[in-house]
């Protein structure tokens, strides 16, 4: 048998050729598919990830699994990266991408084994993908600003969260997610304008139960005042955010102070103290000027406040928090109003924000400050509680996906009926419309794509304990029996009967489905057209011996 061309060039290389390369790629895709398959949908099962130091993570989120698992197979790594890219773009659809890539390669493998060239199948896949996107465009529900009611957004959030959390916890977090996105949504959302989800702070507390998680129309800071005499709870608060040092500072350049007597040293210490005290006195004078008898004053400083300064502020009844995180400084201004200041010389009442209530909460060694009852917030907090770390992590990952799902609907102004309805409609349209008008061997690729799309409803049925074949036949018959033959019919996972997803309130994001079709098809086509897998490259990041000699 003749050696592979790569072997002639580099005898030390490892080569997998022709049909074997497809088997290797399809095997890796099927392996990854079999891991994630049981997680799909609200009836999917959980995976337990155990770290080297015994850390435990319970999840059914495909993106978390793919990021946390140690994947070594190059093809599986490629699929995992593509799927996590789907999660970063749309916040959902990771598991679906892995399932469809695996199924496209699995179906193609059968046709290639019968002698069909991979290029013919790839052409069929591309044509089928374009037609599926046309079906997607015709199936999407276009929404006006009036249509995007709270109930609709709740249904979208519930669909995204229930696939990753228990139904009782998903119901609690659904309201929090919708409220958070509506809070940070700009008044008029333009076509090129995005919702800044960084303005939603996700704060965690290892405290009580997951069902006690809540939405705070304000901010929760993970630090508090540093003086025992400062008030713990305040009403009608005027809030000043600043970046001014209220402590001794080292000079920025190497400098020395020389003195020849104890008196000179005392004067030096006194002048240094006076410099800081003057700034604190400016703050106290400003507080007396702007606050009435029923008002309170809160200072949140990004830099430090020394004990003597804290004592002066505490005697005046001022609540002061020091070393606030930079991200919180921006959020406080958006949440309460006002503006952060870098100097106390030109303080003005317009610099102040307002909150109806500011109070502290202590949990063991952790201290939290709640800024609540703000008037027109442009930033907010989702407070996630749970009895242990892995419960909190599971909810946190799900909430991030839920936020992106709701934001995507508001930006795209479109949704797609879920419960496998789109995949059934696209597969039926490919078989009855595109395949009939296509010519030549491309028909095989179109048929393969139609068969592969059914993996989503099949897996949903399998994870719900239903008969897969009977369920798919019922769904296809119900879709064709609809009045125009184009009504989207999905699967009720509890009863196992075909139904209208709109009645169940199950919706998928338009961009999620579009990206899912694009990414899966491009990756499957590229892997299908690989005819050699070569392990003969240079070590990444390390120069070869020849390069080292050239450098000398």
List keywords for this structure.
alpha+beta; 18 strands; 50% helix; 552 residues; single chain
How would you describe this protein?
The protein has 552 residues and is α+β, with helices and mostly antiparallel strands. The chain contains 19 helices and 18 strands. It has helices at 5-9, 18-36, 62-68, 74-90, 94-113, 118-139, 150-162, 167-184, 262-290, 307-315, 326-336, 389-412, 421-437, 442-453, 455-463, 468-481, 501-504, 510-528, 545-551; strands at residues 14-17, 47-50, 56-59, 141-142, 200-206, 214-216, 219-221, 233-242, 296-301, 319-321, 353-363, 366-372, 380-386, 414-417, 490-491, 498-499, 507-509, 532-535. The chain has a six-stranded mixed β-sheet with strand order 7-12-11-8-9-10. Strands 4-14-17 form a three-stranded antiparallel β-sheet, sandwiched between helices. A three-stranded mixed β-sheet has the order 5-13-6. β15 (490-491) and β16 form a beta hairpin. α5 runs parallel beside α18 (510-528). The radius of gyration is 30 Å and the shape is elongated. 41% of the residues are buried. The mean pLDDT is 80.
Tell me the layout of helices and strands.
Layout: H1 5-9, E1 14-17, H2 18-36, E2 47-50, E3 56-59, H3 62-68, H4 74-90, H5 94-113, H6 118-139, E4 141-142, H7 150-162, H8 167-184, E5 200-206, E6 214-216, E7 219-221, E8 233-242, H9 262-290, E9 296-301, H10 307-315, E10 319-321, H11 326-336, E11 353-363, E12 366-372, E13 380-386, H12 389-412, E14 414-417, H13 421-437, H14 442-453, H15 455-463, H16 468-481, E15 490-491, E16 498-499, H17 501-504, E17 507-509, H18 510-528, E18 532-535, H19 545-551
Parallel strand pairs: 5-13, 8-9, 9-10
Antiparallel strand pairs: 1-18, 2-3, 4-14, 6-13, 7-12, 8-11, 11-12, 14-17, 15-16
């Amino acid at each position: 048998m003749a050696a592979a061309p790569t072997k002639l060039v580099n005898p030390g290389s490892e080569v997998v050729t022709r049909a074997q390369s497809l088997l290797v790629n399809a095997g890796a895709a099927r392996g990854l598919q079999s891991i994630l398959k049981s997680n799909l949908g609200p009836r999917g099962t959980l995976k337990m990830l155990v770290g080297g130091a015994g850390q435990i993570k319970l999840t059914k989120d495909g993106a978390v699994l793919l990021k946390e698992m140690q994947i070594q197979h190059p093809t599986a790594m490629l699929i995992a990266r593509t799927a996590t890219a789907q999660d970063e773009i749309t916040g959902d659809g990771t598991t679906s991408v892995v399932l469809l890539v695996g199924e496209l390669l699995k179906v193609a493998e059968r046709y290639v084994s019968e002698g069909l060239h991979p290029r013919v199948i790839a052409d069929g896949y591309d044509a089928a993908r374009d037609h599926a996107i046309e079906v997607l465009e015709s199936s999407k529900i276009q929404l006006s600003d009036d249509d995007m009611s709270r109930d609709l957004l709740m249904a979208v959030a519930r669909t995204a969260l229930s696939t990753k959390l228990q139904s009782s916890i998903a119901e609690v977090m659904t309201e929090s997610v919708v409220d958070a996105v509506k809070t940070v949504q700009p008044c008029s959302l333009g076509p090129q304008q995005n919702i800044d989800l960084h303005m939603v702070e996700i704060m965690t507390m290892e405290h009580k139960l997951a069902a006690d998680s809540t939405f705070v129309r304000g901010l929760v800071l993970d630090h508090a005042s540093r003086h025992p005499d400062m008030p713990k709870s305040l009403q009608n608060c005027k809030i000043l955010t600043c970046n001014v040092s209220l402590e001794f500072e080292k000079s920025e350049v190497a400098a020395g102070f020389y003195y020849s007597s104890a008196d000179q040293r005392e004067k030096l210490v006194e002048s240094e103290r006076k410099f800081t005290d003057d700034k604190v006195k400016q703050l106290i004078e400003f507080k007396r000027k702007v606050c009435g008898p029923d008002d309170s004053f809160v200072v949140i400083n990004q830099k430090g406040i020394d004990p003597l300064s804290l004592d002066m502020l505490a005697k005046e009844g001022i609540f002061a928090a020091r070393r606030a995180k930079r991200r919180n400084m921006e959020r406080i201004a958006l949440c309460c109003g006002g503006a952060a200041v870098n100097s106390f010389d030109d303080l003005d009442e317009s610099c102040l924000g307002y909150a109806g209530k500011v109070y502290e909460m202590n949990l063991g060694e952790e201290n939290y400050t709640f800024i609540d009852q703000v008037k027109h917030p442009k930033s907010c907090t989702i407070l996630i509680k749970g009895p242990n770390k892995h419960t909190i992590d599971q909810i946190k990952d799900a909430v991030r996906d839920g936020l992106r799902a709701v934001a995507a609907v508001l930006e795209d102004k479109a949704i797609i009926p879920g419960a496998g309805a789109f995949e059934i409609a696209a597969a039926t349209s490919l078989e009855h419309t595109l395949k009939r008008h296509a010519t030549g061997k491309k028909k095989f690729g179109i048929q393969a794509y139609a068969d592969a799309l059914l993996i989503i409803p099949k897996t949903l049925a399998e994870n719900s304990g239903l008969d897969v074949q009977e369920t798919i036949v019922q769904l296809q018959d119900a879709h064709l029996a609809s009045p125009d033959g184009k009504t989207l019919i999905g699967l009720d996972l509890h009863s196992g009967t075909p139904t209208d997803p709109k009645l169940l309130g199950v919706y998928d994001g338009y961009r999620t489905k579009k990206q899912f079709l694009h990414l899966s098809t491009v990756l499957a086509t590229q892997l299908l057209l690989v005819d050699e897998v070569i392990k003969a490259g240079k070590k990444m990041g390390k120069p070869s011996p020849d390069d080292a000699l050239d450098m000398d």
